[in-house]
Specification:
Largest sheet: none
Distance between the termini: 67 Å
Number of strands: 0
Number of helices: 32
Strand content: under 5%
Helix content: 55-70%
Shape: globular
Radius of gyration: 35 Å
């Protein structure tokens, strides 16, 4: 026992005790007067007299200071009291002023409730995210829908649709999109079944290589295939396999457009199908084998029914992507006089007239309607079917191929060589010859096209700078919206959160040409307050990129938040950390890898984008995709090929960087990984 305790105990023992007549404590004598004073205080006159009011009740009791003994004061000298919990250095306990009243306490409670609503969510978070979504998604699409409805009311839609040019473009669009969907289903399902269900080797390399065509811009894909086929192909001339001069280019046709659309969008089917197959239980396949069913019977009766949702979803996505694709129909269709709806919008916009805005708004509405119809057909096909799975999913292969494994691996590598390696080799060969149609040999090989692109062509240098700026600004700027947006969507549940998620997905699901028209209609006129028009500047392209790639930036960050333990943030919140302190010290370090993947993915797609910027660019705001298209259209195939090779190298470098950091990323961020 310390000396201070001994002094305090001796003083309590020696203190006189005042007792009443009943022998109780002296405090008993104080109880009736205290009850009397409290009733008088509640009655009102005393409160009015002393001006206490409601605040007086909440005022701390005024106690007289008690003088401690000298020995106890000396014993406690230098002892520091512990800090009060949940108070920061700058915080302090504040007593409400006497004039606060009941209304002040109610307002303070309501304000505090708004500041820390729903698990520490700040009051500004929902308005900020909702305002960004309304500005980037709802406003442009509402403007487009309004223009389309006005055309329907005035009767312009029927006249425009039944024009020969529009009707032919609509027919060509449906034919090429349907043919491309069939090719995508064949290629995508072959690779998905092989990677997810068999014991083939090098699955990661196969998935990475098969995903590459989707990352390469469509105009580069079309240009590479044009350089690979036809009588003037430098690669075929070098190998001695070129058809005779005067032979038609087979790709300049509806079937050629459909073939390349299928190659471009086959990875979408691969992703949709592989995810479902990888999660399917293996017990059903093993039970069927034990019952004596052969591999074909197991595949027909078990695997195909389980794969139906992925096949339908992948086919619908491939169809919708083919409807809005601009790069492939532009490279292959315009030289042959074949127009689709996206190229029809481009040609109408090039020949600008009085009614151009109304016409392109109606055609864009038609494209959006066809895309929505494709998604509705997908939902109706899946409606009424039960695809719930029971059992444990596993990564173990369901089919051991045995001696057929080598044959399947050879088939897969042969397909990759045909759809990926050969076109890229033809692209490189075309960039090394002085002109299209010249065979590649030691006498004709030259790097002059690369020197022209990198050092002498001002247009390509401007396009390179613009694409680098737009891709970087979109990739980094979207984090300002996606990080709080992902936090909000993972912490909130209900109809409002679902609506926000849908509005974020809509611009990415719509064809890029439709989104470009929506931004033209929205920002063609000067802005209301500042009186400045964004049309014709680089900022309208950046705004369209923000809208189009918002969903791409959101997915990795949201995956990281979903895989995070909420107790980490809850512990920081209970310790008194505010939202920004929790975000800086707890959340951001944990989601940093996913945010980095989001930046690279958006940069990868935005740097090669053509469909959105094809309608929004002007002099001085060309992008890489526009520069490749213009170079090929003007006959400079060697320069277009050289620039395309540089773009492909950039894509492969960024994908390799993502693969290098794959172990630090949440699951599902990299699409080519199992």
């Amino acid at each position: 026992m310390t000396r201070a305790d001994e002094i305090a105990r001796s003083r309590r023992a020696s203190a006189p005790v005042e007792s009443d007549a009943e022998g109780g404590s002296g405090f008993k004598l104080l109880e009736p007067p205290r009850r009397l004073l409290s009733r008088a205080w509640r009655s009102g006159p005393l409160r009015f007299l002393f001006g206490g009011g409601e605040a007086a009740e909440s005022r701390p009791p005024q106690t007289a200071p008690v003088k401690l003994p000298g020995e106890l004061t000396r014993a406690l000298r230098g002892v520091e009291l512990p800090a009060m919990p949940h108070l920061t250095e700058g915080d302090s306990l504040k007593v409400r002023s006497p004039g606060g009243g009941r209304g002040g306490r109610w307002l303070a409670f309501r304000w505090r409730k708004r500041r820390v609503s729903s698990g520490g969510e700040p009051a500004w978070l929902l308005p900020f995210v909702l305002g960004a979504v309304l500005l980037l998604s709802v406003l442009p699409l509402a403007r487009l829908a309004g223009a389309g409805l006005s055309g329907l009311v005035e009767g312009q839609a029927a006249r425009l649709i039944f024009e020969p040019a529009t009707f032919a473009a609509l027919r060509n669009t449906l034919i090429t999109a349907t043919g491309g969907m069939v090719v995508s289903l064949l290629l995508g399902s072959l690779f998905a079944f092989a990677v997810a269900l068999t014991d083939i080797r090098r699955k990661l390399i196969l998935s990475f290589a098969f995903m590459l065509p989707m990352m390469i811009p469509p105009q580069v894909t079309a240009l590479a295939w044009v350089e690979m086929s036809g009588p003037a192909s430098p690669l075929l001339k070098t190998l001695g396999l070129a058809p005779p001069l005067g032979s038609p280019q087979p790709l300049y046709s509806l079937s050629g457009i459909a073939l390349l659309l299928g190659v471009q969008h086959a990875p979408l089917v691969f992703l949709a199908l592989k995810a479902g197959l990888a999660a399917s239980p293996r017990e059903g396949i093993e039970a069927a084998r034990l019952a004596g069913a052969g591999p074909f019977r197991v595949f027909r009766d078990i695997v195909l029914p389980l794969a139906t949702p992925g096949l339908i979803a992948g086919g619908a996505i491939a169809f919708v992507s083919g409807i809005g694709n601009f790069g492939i129909p532009a490279i292959l269709g315009i030289p042959a006089g074949i127009e689709t709806l996206p190229t029809l919008i481009f040609s109408r916009f090039a020949s600008f007239g009085a009614g151009t805005f109304g016409e392109i708004a109606l055609i864009s509405t038609l494209i959006a309607a066809i895309s929505a119809a494709g998604l509705i057909v997908q939902q109706r096909a899946l409606q009424g079917r039960d695809y719930r799975l029971i059992g444990h999913s596993g990564a173990r292969a369901a089919f051991a191929l045995g001696r057929w494994r080598i044959a399947l691996e050879a088939l897969l590598w042969a397909v990759l060589a045909l759809v990926l390696v050969a076109p890229l080799l033809a692209l490189v060969a075309s960039s090394l010859v002085p002109a299209y149609g010249v065979p590649l040999n030691l006498e004709t090989v030259s790097l002059s096209a690369y020197g022209e692109i990198l050092f002498r062509q001002s247009i390509t240098l401007t396009a390179l700078k613009n694409s680098a700026f737009l891709a970087s600004a979109a990739a980094l700027g979207l984090l300002v919206v996606t990080v709080p947006g992902a936090y909000l969507l993972t912490r909130r549940k209900g109809a409002l959160a679902n609506l926000i998620a849908i509005l974020i997905e809509v611009p990415y699901a719509l064809p890029g040409i439709v989104l470009a028209v929506a931004f033209i209609l929205t920002f063609a006129a000067p802005l209301p307050v500042v009186g400045v028009s964004l049309y014709g500047t680089i900022w309208i392209i950046l705004a369209a990129y923000f809208s189009s790639f918002l969903a791409v930036s959101l997915k990795p960050v949201m995956s990281a938040f979903l895989q995070m333990d909420p107790s980490l943030e809850e512990a920081a919140r209970l310790a008194g950390a505010g939202f920004f302190r929790r975000m800086r010290d707890v959340l951001l370090p944990l989601i940093a890898p996913a945010a980095g993947a989001s930046v690279i993915l958006v940069f990868l797609i935005a740097a090669n984008e053509l469909t959105v910027s094809a309608l929004l660019w002007s002099a001085g705001t060309q992008t890489l995709g526009v520069a490749i298209f213009n170079l090929d259209d003007s006959g400079s195939s060697d320069l277009a090929s050289a620039l395309s090779v540089l773009v492909v190298l950039l894509v492969m470098a960024l994908m390799a960087a993502l693969e290098f950091f794959a172990k630090y990323l949440p699951e599902g961020v990299l699409p080519w990984r199992n």
